[in-house]
Specification:
The chain is an alpha/beta fold. It contains 12 helices and 11 strands. It has an 8-stranded parallel β-barrel, surrounded by 8 helices. A two-stranded antiparallel sheet has the order 5-6. The protein is globular.
Amino acid sequence: MKFGVFDHMDWNGRSVSSLYAERLHLVTLYEQLGFHAYHLTEHHATRLGMAPSPSVFLSAVAQRTTTLRLGTLVYLLPLHHPVRLLEEIGMLDHLSGGRLEVGFGRGGALVEHMRYGLDEQIVPDMFEEAAELLLKGLSGETLEHEGRFYRLHDVPMLLSTVQRPRPGLWYGTATPQKAVWAAGEGINLLSLLPAPGTRKLMDAFHQAWADLGRDPAAIPFHGIGGHQIYVAASDAEAYEIGRRAWTRWAENFRYLWDRSGRPVPPNVKVFAENFDDILAGGTVIVGAPDTVRTALKTVERDGRINYYAAELVFGDMTLDEAEASVRLFAREVMPAFEMAGIGAR
């Protein structure tokens, strides 16, 4: 199983400048420690995501690293004009020397789209049309399209990507139907669900891949992202720091809905209720290295995954706390999976 890093870059209670500086320090550490990729979310007008323009931050990441792959999970397509986004993707792939990973999606918190003046009823259709355009633009020399939201004629794709035929694409979903679609398009798949729910997606993904007659060894990455992990010398220390940091993260998670006066949707409450309940549900893992290894072995087996993008820094975690956990995770957890030859892509 390969490991990546998933980052909301939620507010830590300190200055935004220090937040950015700390993350840029950590991305160089991720590269040194052998993580496959750094994946940054996109959120707007919420403390859950303090990097609302992921392309800007990733351009800084690109200049501080040389081997770490980097990208979005996800670009919120309804909030980007497809032509502008395709140009940014081309720029980032060149700036990174062909290391870009492009995650795209609709976005799970439609109140963010409403803050851009979009009617939440049109967002799903807008996403589908924008996704079609994104795939067209990444594979062609010109863009032609006549649709409900976008009308484009003879738009030259001058900033084609370094990676051919296109960068790695990522899609996050909670439905088996979309997992089947991702398999058909050859797109890497990510779930935010606990392992049992993830298994349904991955079974559908594997079956769709097999039905297409494709080589099982060439199956794209398929895994879990956004689950928080904190590793310390003892279970007690990890629990104490992880619980404190997660409490701030949960406040940041709920900020969007609290500010708008809307209840947190039932399908996302699993990520921000009581810490001990979340811990039991498997979307947070804290403990000594042995504890974390054992938990991840269960997740790998039950979820049928070959990729895990852990959220290693969250809430009000200090830089020293974050770095200590990241080093322990890389040194004492990751080798138990990667040395087994799993997910050797």
